[in-house]
Amino acid sequence: MTAPRQRKGVRLADAADEQPSQQEDAKPRAEIQSAHSGGKLWNILSLTVGGIVAVCLGLLTSVYIATLHENDLWFSNIKEVEREISFRTECGLYYSYYKQMVQAASIQQGLHGLVYDNKTESVRTINILERMNVYQEVFLSILYRILPIQQYLEPVYFYIYTLFGLQAVYVIALYVTSWLLSGTWLSGLLAAFWYITNRVDTTRVEFTIPLRENWALPFFAVQIAAITYLLRTHLQPAHERWTLLAVFIATFFFSLTWQFNQFMMLIQALVLFVLDCFDMLPTAKVTWLYIIQVSGLLLVCVLQFFNSMILGSLLISFNASVLIARTIQKNLKKGGLFSRLGKLLLHVLFVSCLTLLVNKLIKKILNLESDEHIFKFLKAKFGFGATRDFDANLYLCEEAFGLLPLNTFSRLSDTLLFYVYIFVLFPMTVTAAIVAFQNLRYSIGSTKAEKSVGKKEDCTIALKPGTAYNLIHTVLFGCLALSTMRMKYLWTSHMCVFASFGLCSTEVWGLILKCVRLYTSQRTSVIRYSLPVITLLYISYKFWPGIMDELSELREFYDPDTVELMNWIKSNTPSTAVFAGSMQLLAGVKLCTGRILTNHPHYEDKNLRERTKQIYQIYAKRSPEDVYRILQSFGTDYVILEDSICYERRHSRGCRLRDLLDIANGHIMDGLGENEPDLKPSLYPRFCEEIKRNLPSYTVHFTRVFQNKTFHVYRLAKHK
């Protein structure tokens, strides 16, 4: 009994002794509370200022892009036909559906015209909403019709201002992502500055306004920002649910607006797969992201009238295979290092084989061949055998689908972006490799892991889940950009985010300073704030005069030959006339004149690809009877020949359109140079050249009705 009494007495004595000390601590506690409230006030102030700066930068970017577009074309002063011609190639095709909806007698008739379209492909009725990603044009046209703005704003301005406005969303999303990663809005400011000063390599919206990627990439950037926030640790359940909803909405709009969405999200799924395999992301969140990707894509599939190309996408097959494999291999993340490596290799092999099997099965059931040209192109591009396939070679010979030019890096280095990017990428990659090794070595359930918790925590602190995701994201999309120049815009914009994050990050500078044994929190803070400010001052000093000169430079749209052609077609041909020609030109013919086409640039359909190859025989070595028969089979009334294609010099021998046709037809190419040994001379001269001689064998089928320095239009004879 004495022991308890003694302990009780001690407590009373301690309590009596502590009374004066508690009174002494009252003042420091008040100071702590005051400091806490002051810190909270500072966070609110920083959030407010950072948000205002983000919105201002986004709006300034929109105005800047819009001004460049106006100055380059004098868009406000040129005629409507010139404005429409400025929407080159597939851009004109997409805009034509917006124009069609705006000019329709009613919204219902406009939608009916898209669902039962018989003007885009002659002698065929197709569903535009199924075949193409044009819901954005439908939505904008309906919005324009119901808003009371027709008297103040022309339809074309409503359209282009919407696209320029999306650039504001794009810049704000990049800004926020960098801010989330680094913890300071100064990083977002630097990311936005780099995006603007590297405009040549980060966007092409000012001269390809209706292009699908200009609609999609802002939503992709919003999705990445939402994923970065989602991967934060200790996120409250309510915040997590709202963030998942934001990811789903951004994913849905990204998928809805671009036909190549499935390939971009496949790379994103590979990012998640890699990080999940190495325990660098929470498995539950990764699962949700897989489900969101598939559900967003399936919802788009429903809206596109069950487009078979979506159902047969590798993304759906891959995500389904990962989830199935994870269910089967339940002990994937348990065991020692070698056990984990063996299980990981087996898991990767199983997922790969299952993906190919599921994808092959879906395509066989649906009889899907819409995307086969992409795989033929990839097979030839990466050296898995030469091909004579016309469609694959058409892509291979385009500069946009070639390797990223080296001068891209010199331009990115002028703004210091590339140097900083490499500087940040190297230590982050090394850190990721160490983290991955430690995660494999100290697995869930192993006794070594329990003994080395502190060691593992020290390692993972240096690489947060959001940082890990953005690191692998930039690496994989960098590989895509290096292999295919057209995809560089997915990489360079994220490069701005990643480089600015690294320059303002305590993670990066803490790691570097610890390696050289110079780490202090004060030194880290000084570096992470001073270097970005110095970089911003340097960029402003070097590029501000150039931006001002660019904004003051005035040019004007000038394409008199195409304008003359479009005006002639509108004035001298019936509205039901069917035109054949190059894909790029016919998109403009549909937009400017509303005439019926035989083919067009939206190439994601096997029948259209075969039809285009047949129409392009006008530039091959074929007899006039063969060409006439081919054109007649598609209901052609007029054919347009372009000297720029017939006598092309832009591409080297072997990549000119006429060369691709000769190879596909088994004919020897024109000009000096080697030919494949099995190619033979054609029995006929080149059609586009020979028809201009007005020989009887040609004039019996074709009559020239228009010509200028660029174009020659022939009317087909109506033989019984």
TrEMBL record:
Its main location: membrane. The keyword Disulfide bond does not apply. The chain crosses the membrane at residues 44-66, 179-196, 216-235, 241-258, 270-291, 297-324, 344-362, 416-440, 461-483, 489-513, 525-544. Residues 1-29 are annotated as: Disordered. Keywords: Glycosyltransferase, Membrane, Transferase, Transmembrane, Transmembrane helix. Belongs to the dpy-19 family. PANTHER family: C-MANNOSYLTRANSFERASE DPY19L3-RELATED, DPY-19-LIKE 1, LIKE (H. SAPIENS). This is D19L3 mannosyltransferase. It comes from Nothoprocta pentlandii.
